[in-house]
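Figure 3 (text version): structure tokens given as input.
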């Protein structure tokens, strides 16, 4: 009996010691995570621990932070990481973003086709990068009603070249009739422009939709006959590809392509492994577009896009300097795009320019245009002559804007 009592005492003693130890550990843990005491007149000891404060203070602070973070956001859908779209989007964010004033959020996407769908349907998206020929795609392939009246362009950006790359036994587009041609992943620029090019040329193909990096490897064993890539030249897909027995297929320019496309070429300096020195391959270029959803002017989202546009004009000259993409120097913020409407916020700035409020960004672009297109003759213009030409240019652009609006 004495041994039993001693055993019980030992068990209860151990249990009590463990309980005290756990309690002490819990108190230590609480103290480790507590904030310092807050002085508070009238409280016992003159202080009150934050854990005893009502939760509304932290809640209100959290709500204020949430409102601040979302106050001036602009969602910008771009493209795949290996493409030019996403680089342009990232560079726009670097130059235009300003804390609490504007925050551009670049979004990785498949590309031109998906970007239009996201612009229409994805919450938080206001601006996108796409192509001029996307309107035809959504008229003929995936029909979206009234699309041209739901989106508008902010600016034409740069030109992307159409690359049709094939096994060497094919020499013309007609040779690819009924052949296996890869149009990259669904939603990308090759899916868009590739369909249009082959359709307008009257060349039916067996289309596949693999990533072009995979497709180009399958061309080696004949599983795929050709692929379409729409991007700025030179492109790493071809410059880094090692292999013989391949060539670029010419795409001749004609009236069939006069709406959205321009004639251009691929040269030996672009792709020395596939184009002999002194030769070139005719192809098409399509305009890449910075576009926006047409929010009503009374909405908060319209104000976000408007601020984005204003900041773009203000900071545009910075984008034309290193280390940003060299194709920014080809961008003309006043340029027009056939078949597209210009965004109201851009039209407002163009009208202001016409009344004398000249944008430094547009002036830099105009001078660059004279230098590139006019050669030595334009280079010898006096400052007064340049000013007169620029005023004429701004007035002409404003007139085109008014005429375009009157005919809609």
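Below: residues designed for each position.
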């Amino acid at each position: 009996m004495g041994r039993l009592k001693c055993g019980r005492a030992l068990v209860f003693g151990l249990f009590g010691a463990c309980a005290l130890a756990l309690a002490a550990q819990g108190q230590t843990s609480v103290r480790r995570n507590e904030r310092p005491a807050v002085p508070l007149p009238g409280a016992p000891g003159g202080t009150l621990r934050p854990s005893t404060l009502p939760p509304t203070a932290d809640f209100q602070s959290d709500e204020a932070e949430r409102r601040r973070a979302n106050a001036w956001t602009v969602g910008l859908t771009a493209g795949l990481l290996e493409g030019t779209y996403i680089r342009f989007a990232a560079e726009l964010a670097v130059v235009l973003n300003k804390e609490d004033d504007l925050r551009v959020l670049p979004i990785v996407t498949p590309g031109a086709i998906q970007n239009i769908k996201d612009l229409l349907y994805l919450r938080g998206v206001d601006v996108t990068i796409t192509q001029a020929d996307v309107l035809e795609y959504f008229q003929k392939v995936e029909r979206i009603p009234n699309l041209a009246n739901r989106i508008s362009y902010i600016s034409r950006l740069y030109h992307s070249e159409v690359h049709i790359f094939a096994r060497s036994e094919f020499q013309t587009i007609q040779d690819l009739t009924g052949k296996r041609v890869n149009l990259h992943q669904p939603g990308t620029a090759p899916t868009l422009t590739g369909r249009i090019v082959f359709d307008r040329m009257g060349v039916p193909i067996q289309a596949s939709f693999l990533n072009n990096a995979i497709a180009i490897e399958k061309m080696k064993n004949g599983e795929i006959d050709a692929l379409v890539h729409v991007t700025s030249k030179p492109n790493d897909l071809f410059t880094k590809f090692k292999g013989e027995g391949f060539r670029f297929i010419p795409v001749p320019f004609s009236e069939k392509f006069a709406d959205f496309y321009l004639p251009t070429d691929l040269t030996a300096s672009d792709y020395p492994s596939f184009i002999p020195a002194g030769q070139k391959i005719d192809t098409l270029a399509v305009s890449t577009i910075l576009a926006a959803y047409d929010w009503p002017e009374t909405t908060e989202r319209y104000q976000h896009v408007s601020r984005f546009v204003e900041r773009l004009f203000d900071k545009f000259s910075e984008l034309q300097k290193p280390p940003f993409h060299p194709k920014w120097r080809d961008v003309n913020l006043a340029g027009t795009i056939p078949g597209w409407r210009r965004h109201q916020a851009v039209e407002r700035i163009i009208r202001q320019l016409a009344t004398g409020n000249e944008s430094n960004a547009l002036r830099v672009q105009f001078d660059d245009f004279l230098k590139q297109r006019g050669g030595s003759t334009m280079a010898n213009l006096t400052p007064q002559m340049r000013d007169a030409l620029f005023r004429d240019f701004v007035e002409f652009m404003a007139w085109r804007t008014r005429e375009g609006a009157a005919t809609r």
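The chain is about 45% helix and 20% strand.
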